[in-house]
Specification:
The chain is mainly alpha-helical. The chain is built from eight helices and no strands. The protein has one domain. Helix 2 packs across helix 6.
């Protein structure tokens, strides 16, 4: 690749090609694995914390999700996301796209994983599907906004040679930023969906047993 760029007179691009290639390879791996880790470790703690708030203490917990179903749902979502990444990978070489496409993919994946895990204990399967269908655009917008916040370290990696020189230090900072963004996402999705679930039951007159 370096020889081809030299032959075509693109020597200036060689300086940014290595960081760009590194970002393209690492970002999907880091983001997806960290999102899954947060979804299975931090989200349950976030839900327990929010469920103790006065607004949600009386909200019935259906417990229809389960760990196995959550893992299967996450696996299918990740496979779909990886397939989309592979299909669009050639477009990532266009400089603006490396900062535009990741937020869209991570936003969609964040919406899927966070919505399922937030509603896994409180909502029935029918309620979960109804809420995700009714609020799909709001949830997708929330996921994309969270993806845009997570794109900040991606942009830094793609445009700064310093990030490559100090990669061991920068990587820890980037992981911390991703973790903060995903935990914030969990809090945002939890408040939004639990409130939506409460309103859904009130509107449809659904009365379930005591949690």
């Amino acid at each position: 690749m370096a020889d081809v760029m030299s032959a075509t007179g693109w020597d200036e691009i060689r300086a940014v090609m290595a960081p760009l290639l590194l970002v393209i390879i690492l970002i999907p791996v880091i983001t997806i694995s960290l999102l899954v880790l947060v979804a299975f470790t931090s989200v349950p703690a976030v839900i327990r914390h929010i469920a103790r708030q006065p607004n949600y203490q009386g909200l019935y917990q259906a417990h229809e999700g389960g760990l196995i179903r959550s893992i299967l749902y996450a696996f299918v979502s990740i496979v779909i996301c990886c397939a989309l990444v592979l299909m669009t990978l050639p477009i990532w070489w266009v400089p603006p796209m490396v900062a535009i496409l990741p937020p869209l993919f991570w936003g969609w994946l964040t919406m899927r994983l966070m919505s399922y895990d937030v509603l896994a204990h409180h909502a029935t399967e029918a309620e979960r599907q109804s809420l995700m269908q009714t609020h799909r655009w709001s949830l997708l917008t929330m996921g994309i906004l969270c993806g845009l916040m997570g794109a900040v370290p991606t942009f830094f990696w793609a445009t700064s040679a310093v990030a490559i020189i100090f990669f061991p230090v920068v990587s820890f900072v980037v992981l911390w930023i991703y973790s903060v963004v995903f935990i914030f996402s969990a809090l945002w999705f939890a408040h939004y969906l639990l409130n939506a679930l409460r309103e859904h039951r009130a509107v449809h007159g659904i009365v379930l047993g005591d949690s």
